[in-house]
Design brief:
The protein has 18 helices and 9 strands. With about 525 residues, the chain is mostly helical. Strands 4-6-7 form a 3-stranded antiparallel sheet. Strands 1-2 form a two-stranded parallel ribbon. Strands 3-5 form a two-stranded antiparallel sheet.
């Protein structure tokens, strides 16, 4: 399981008035940045006014959801004043029913960062001390163990976020610099004590969209990287199959100027180093998996544009309930915990990424097919003569990518279409945003593996065709891979090779062209 390494001399990310970016969230989750709470007196005073407003309204006997009333459908039940202090603890404990594989350490750290960003807007009625505790978790490498299943996405991510609240109060389990242990032990190692919640503070942590949003942040960054790799692979494919570079002519894309496909075509042209815009090969037109690659990649890029905007808004939005307005003195009870925008964004992105996965599978098939690959040997078999009859090269790799693409396409069923009534028909319309985000991450992972197989096949095509590729981008990618992985001169297993390329891709080590 990946861990969050704390990089020395980490750059500060100030949390408070300044909105966080998706990149801030990723850097905080990976230990590449440290969180710093906005120390300006004006900001800190506003946060405390929000908390005081909640306290004053409660003392006046005003009904405030989750403070002096029950939770969910029990909101019409008043809570005895002697039991109000117990409510924040009970809320955390009865939601301790998450199941499924835990989120990765990095994803769980991103959850902490995203929840901090929302609470730090100063409209949730929490104390500055609670915000500082989130900062302490991030900066000390304390990461809650969060089960992946159990959220319907409204009222937010109640059950998975209860695992964040539990660690803050010293219960359940946490990773301390990558090592799993009881939460109380993790806090002690960092010199921290369990936090005692005041009314509404655990509800403020739990009643929001921060799990789905954190997963969305990671999916967006990975999807953007995949789009650039898909363009690089397409250029390499054009070169090794003697394809027709005129398919990527600038004028074609100016005449139907979707920004994403225009950018994808430019990347491919750049990687082909301005190859002649006329046909150099024997075919007037290449198959769609080559000719239409910018259009497929472009859909994903254009989808990422609005997905980024929606997720960015969600990171910094006040998405719990009730909301406190220090300026007007109002206590507002609404539904900002509904994760519809994140759910819709993830359903859209996962479909676009699955299409890129399918494209890559088709491109690998093209490479292996002697009727389509411009004279390369069947299945990219390197041996010649009699040895060629007993070796099968990339035949099984193409079966692999076909299976990966099929699984990715299967997961495109929109999770947001499966809203269902729950919790005594109080939560009678829910977003399923967290399931959509988990599906998107699964599709991204499948596509990364498919991309790794395609990269290996393209490098093999270079070896069996020309040994020395002409274009700099193809040469750089081929050289990097061959520094670590040998060509397939005789049939052998390639599982370890695939995992290596996936790792390089996720760590931004593969040499790709300019963004």
């Amino acid at each position: 399981m990946p861990t969050t390494e704390l990089t020395p001399d980490r750059a500060p990310v100030v949390v408070g008035e300044r909105p966080l970016t998706i990149e801030d969230v990723i850097d905080l989750s990976r230990g590449k940045a440290r969180a710093v709470l906005d120390a300006s007196p004006t900001y800190l005073a506003r946060v405390e006014r929000s908390h005081h407003l909640l306290t004053e309204a409660s003392l006046l006997g005003k009904p405030i959801y989750g403070v002096n009333t029950g939770f969910g459908v029990s909101c019409e039940v008043g809570v005895d004043a002697d039991w109000m202090a117990r409510m924040p603890i009970n809320l955390v404990r009865f939601h301790g029913c998450g199941v499924g594989e835990p989120l990765s350490v990095q994803d769980s750290a991103a959850v902490v960062a995203v929840r901090l960003a929302s609470l730090a807007r100063g409209h949730s009625g929490v104390r500055v001390a609670l915000l500082q505790r989130f900062v302490d978790l991030l900066n000390n490498g304390i990461v809650p163990r969060i089960p992946s299943q159990g959220s319907v996405g409204a009222s937010g991510d109640l059950t998975p976020l209860s695992y964040v609240a539990a660690v803050i109060m010293g219960e359940r389990e946490a990773y301390y610099r990558g090592n799993l242990m009881p939460a109380g032990q993790a806090l002690a190692l960092a010199g921290l004590t369990p936090f005692v919640f005041e009314p509404k503070e655990s509800l403020a942590i739990m009643n929001g969209t921060s799990v789905m949003t954190a997963l969305a942040c990671a999916a967006i960054v990975s999807a953007e990287r995949l789009c650039r790799l898909a363009a690089a692979c397409t250029a390499m494919l054009c070169e090794v199959t003697n394809g027709n570079p005129s398919h990527f002519h600038e004028r074609i894309f100016a005449l139907k100027p979707h920004p994403g496909q225009t950018l994808a075509a430019r990347w491919i042209r750049d990687d082909l180093e301005g190859a002649p815009a006329t046909n150099e090969g024997p075919r007037v037109q290449d198959r769609y998996s080559l000719r239409c690659a910018p259009h497929v990649i472009g859909v994903a890029l254009d989808t990422l544009t609005f997905v980024r905007q929606w997720v960015q808004t969600e990171i910094n939005g006040v998405n719990d309930n009730p909301i406190l307005d220090p300026e007007s003195g109002e206590v507002l009870m609404g539904g900002n915990f509904y994760g519809g925008h994140v759910g819709q964004a993830m359903d859209a992105l996962k479909t676009a990424v699955a299409s890129v996965c399918d494209l890559m599978d088709r491109q690998l098939l093209l490479l292996c097919d002697p009727q389509a690959n411009g004279g390369l040997p069947r299945d990219l078999v390197a041996p010649v003569g009699a040895a060629a009859t007993a070796n099968f090269g990339f035949k099984a790799m193409q079966i692999l990518t076909s299976a990966l693409a099929a699984e990715a396409l299967k997961l495109t069923m929109p999770a947001t279409a499966f809203s269902r009534s729950t919790e005594g028909h109080n939560q009678d319309k829910v977003s399923m945003g967290t399931i959509a985000a988990r599906d998107c991450q699964s599709i991204v992972s499948l596509t990364e593996t498919c991309a790794a197989a395609l990269v290996l096949a393209l490098c093999q095509a270079v070896d069996v065709r020309c040994k020395s590729p002409v274009r700099v981008s193809t040469r750089a990618l081929h050289k990097f891979v061959r520094q670590h992985i040998q060509a397939v001169d005789q049939d052998r297993g390639m599982e370890a090779d695939i995992h290596a390329v996936v790792r390089w891709l996720r760590n931004d080590e593969l040499p790709l062209g300019a963004p």
